[in-house]
Amino acid sequence: MHNVKLFIDGEFKNSASLNRIPVTNPASAEIIAYVPDALAEEADQAVAAAKKAFQSWKAVPVTERARVMMRYQAILKREQTRIASVLAAETGKVFDDAMGDAWRGIEVVEQAMNAPGMMMGETVENVAQGIDTYSMIQPLGVCVGITPFNFPAMIPLWMFPLAIACGNTFVLKPSEQDPQTPMLLAELFVEAGAPPGVLNIIHGGRERVDQLLHHDDVAAVSFVGSVPVGQHVYRTATANLKRAQCFAGAKNHTVVMPDASKNHVINNLVGASVGAAGQRCMAISVAIFVGESQQWIDELAQAIAAVKPGLWNDKEAGFGPLISASAKERVVALIESGKAQGATCLVDGSDFTVAGYEQGHWIGPTVFRDVTTDMRIYQEEIFGPVLCCLCVDSLDEALAIVNANPYGNGTSIFTASGAAARKYQSEVSVGQVGINVPIPVPLPFFSFTGWKNSFFGDLHAYGKQAVRFYTETKTITSRWPEDSIPAGPNLTINLR
Ligand code: NAD
To answer: Which residues does the UniProt record annotate as the domain Aldehyde dehydrogenase (predicted)?
Structure first.
């Protein structure tokens, strides 16, 4: 049985920990590998390696750091199919979606290739007589990333390439549920020319995370995962005076106006709601139908019911299983709560299975209508292939529902009216808005800007905000004396 290694100071090595966590194939529940719950001293070694490497890595010219990213981008593209195969086998994602997981990460590496331009400071000449002020952007030191199971390529790649291109070094603690994908990313990073200690990977759960959050030599923490853990990480990291950005759970709404194109709405909402088995933080899990558009719900439900889950290498499969038995148990319980609380279940996937893979964590597509905001299926993040449909009479009512929701990751509106779209984009309290685009994940030259309980912190992932997150600004005021400098001491705060 394959034992997942640690990656410390340029070496892939077995952990000495006797505590091993099984990694399973979610389609069959078979154990495919074991990942160690690393020892405290191994986490310390990873931070120490990163701290040591920082001294030399920060002095490597930014152009050379960018070239490592250029090589990394080319290698990731070359190996995209291999990454997607490893990723699909341990997450159950269908192959094309696994390719997308890798690709959306590669795009962030492309942004990291632009590090020189992004790290330019500012200059003002002659702020006072003979005095110039300029700023430079410098790295922080050792940065830590804690990542979730649902995008094991994309989310680590949201973090370490940019942090490292900015001159930092990195310790990654990936999800214990699919750790083989990030290990492959590390292997390819070595091939790209990353020196030892620049990227390190340890495995484990809460204890290892807490150790990193308390570690004196860690400067900044990036986290992506669920709300309770995100709050814990943000509180602990900031209480230890570290910079932190924590991306958390979501409940993303789409608003369907009656003037929208029905076919466009249906074609888009099928994939946006049940794609990746709903295990996307930007999945649409609530659709609010305004006025007459509620007549389309049955047709949408039929289109969603036609999507068949299956194995990752089944070309007919629309999506794969849930990640674990406990994830399935939670989603089934929520579906049952929806029925018990009075929602109408138009499509029920709770009994779905794939022949020959009955032990897998399958849930078929599920659609509820007559959902109200006091129901658990509305209030909780389901993270399964379940769409909740609500009906209202006006855009104002729809906006009030979306704005009262505690999450604010993504939302969309389908409409033919520029005025309705403009009102929605302006008044909605959600950080990423799609107009006739169901899942508005920004490309990496923008930033991933969730709001409210979907994000704790201020500077967001990738884009210019991530460069600010992973760097410090130093401002220099300089004078090179000439004859004109006034004689005698200056006892005021004025420059002269
Ligand atoms: P999770 O919170 O269970 O785990 C995330 C990471 O935290 C993992 O590395 C895990 O090992 C670690 N962890 C788990 N429990 C911990 C604890 N008590 N203390 C410290 N660390 C702990 O999340 P998950 O189930 O892997 O991922 C799914 C969640 O992630 C969903 O809520 C989803 O919405 C969210 N997510 C959010 C975004 C976003 O950008 N907002 C993106 C992807 C996923």
So the answer is: 14-476
How many residues belong to the chain? 496
Q: What's the gap in Å between 391 CA and the centre of ligand 1?
A: 31
Task: Give 2-248+454-477's CATH code, choosing from 3.40.190.10, 3.40.30.10, 3.40.605.10, 3.40.50.2000.
Answer: 3.40.605.10
Buried b (16+ CB within 10 A) or exposed e, 449-480: bbbbbbbbbebbbbbebbbbbbbeeeeeeeee
d(C-alpha 376, C-alpha 361), whole Å: 22
pLDDT digits (tens, 9 = 90+) for 269-316: 999 999 999 999 999 999 999 999 999 999 999 999 999 999 999 999
Gap from CA of 226 to ligand 1 centroid (Å): 4
Rounded to an integer, what distance in angstroms lies between the CA atom of residue 64 and that of residue 57?
10
Angle between helices 180-191 and 154-165 (to 10 degrees): 30
CA distance 335 to 286: 14
CB 273 within 8 A of CB 287: yes
In angstroms, how far is CA 150 from the centroid of its own chain? 9
pTM over 0.80: yes
Confidence of residue 484 (pLDDT cuts 50, 70, 90): low
Indicate the burial class of 27 (C-beta count within 10 angstroms; 0-12, 13-18, 19 or more): buried
Q: What is the pLDDT of residues 11-26, one digit of tens each?
A: 999 999 999 999 999 9
Instruction: Classify domain 252-435 by CATH architecture.
Output: 3-Layer(aba) Sandwich (3.40)
Helix then strand then coil, in percent of the chain rounded to 5, is: 40, 25, 40
C-alpha dist (Å) from residue 283 to 252, 265, 397:
6, 15, 22
**Which residue's alpha carbon is at the smallest distance from atom 36 of ligand 1?**
225
Q: Residue 276, SS3?
A: helix
Ligand 1 close to Cβ of residue 226 (< 6 A):
yes
> Over the Cα atoms of the chain, what is R_g?
25
Catalytic residue among 246, 281, 345, 388: 281
Has 281 been annotated as catalytic?
Answer: yes
Q: Tens digit of pLDDT for each residue in 118-138?
A: 999 999 999 999 999 999 999
